[in-house]
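Milestone M4 deliverable, item 7.
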Amino acid sequence: MTDALRVLLIEDTEQDAMLLERTLRRKWKALDLRRIETADAMRAALETGTWDVVLSDFNLPGFGAPEALAIQEEVAPDLPFVVVSGLIATEDAVEIMRSGADDIVRKEDLARLVPTVERKTGEAEGRRERRRLEAELRNREEHYRGLYRDTPAMMHSIDGEGRIVNVSDYWLEHLGYRADEVIGRKSVEFLTGESRRYAETKVLPAFMRTGSCTNVEYQFVKKNGEIIDTLLSATAERDTDGAFIRSLAIVTDVTDKKRAEHDLMRTNRALRTISQCNQVLVHATSEEQLLFDICRTIVEYGGYRMAWVGFPENDAKKSICPVAHYGHEKGFLDIASPSWEDVEGQYCPSGAAIRKGTPQLLQNLADHPEFACDLEVALARGYAACGAFPLKEDDHVFGTLTALAGEPMAFDDAEAVLLQELADDLAYGILALRESAERRRTERELEKVHQRLTSAIESLPDGFAIFDCDDRLVLTNEKYKEIYAESVPAIRLGTTFEELVRYGLDHGQYADAVGLGRVKTVGRVRL
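Output delivered:
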């Protein structure tokens, strides 16, 4: 993916435009973004500039997404058009999608913006590439009709017995065979076992009857053993009596497309998992429940086989104490006894994540006999891949979040980054809950101290009062109020010593001072 992206942004709010630009620039460093607000400006930008995607707010004064989409369809129909808006009515969303918008991203869910733009620009590029290839194929067919072998596509023909009678050079090149290794063999011999059974029992019998098939999913096996995903479409050539002569099959390699779709599905799955985990974090009230709910969410929303959280111990074995888990665990953690000790010839992803403070991935457990957490037990429980992500407070690792997948190669780069972000969010949530718990504990202790102090003061036979460094009353007992009964209305927390004395003088508290008039200065007495 290139670092450059050219964006035409239809947005009237400067702050929202800046937020969108920051979000996009995290992915595309060479971001070229032009903001416009009117139909004329949009038309001019489309006619004079080159863009990768159009992002549009739904409502602008006198101009909005529906009008912008109409202009885009007229001037540059190949451009992806994504609505990025706040509140949008369901009927408006349905209508704009029906009109041709590629997607809708809510402004409060900008985590979807980058993957959506990636997907839609990729699809647009794919469409342009497909149109280019289709045009190229048409030109070749027009100029070289009948030059079967030279057609730049995987093509072959079979006879009534299913044996290959002709094959294109491109077919041979793509699968790595010579013509003499292919001609005369049955076409199904080049398929995987599952695809061959499907072809022999379903596709070929129907094809021989109807004379056509479209986009049949097969897996071909190259000469080097590599498996590719394909779509096969074919038509039958018949004689004047309707008897089958041969077929013409075109095979399209969709391996990269399916891999991209699979990667996108996993990324979206990870994003949904993070979104749900964020909800868990927001509503968490206890660390124990938080850890359990995070593990549950990873399994239920992320599709993983099992997830667990562990904290390192400082015992002799440097054990990792599992504090929460969810999924198909079946006693695995008790048997595995995970450790963060660095032992030569053994590798525990969770332990390595704690020691190194970085994500640790094993994409295929079966290929790693050094897996230190009892490989046989792990495979028996259906674990095929493992990812461990450190929980950190600044540079200190205090735990690990580990996910075990049921399929190999379950952690691509994008998904690993998202899962580490999830681990960072979890670490923040744990620390916040611990801080909150400690604060509540401290408050309870202070309340107990205050109660003991109050009780002690009340038990004194004499009047007692405490003033702070600013001479303001902070604590007194009932005996003090009995002694200075005339001053009770002024005996309030926060009253200064001088204010208390002056009130007493004004209300006859001090009999010896009667007739002396207002006291100008009162001596300071600390009780």
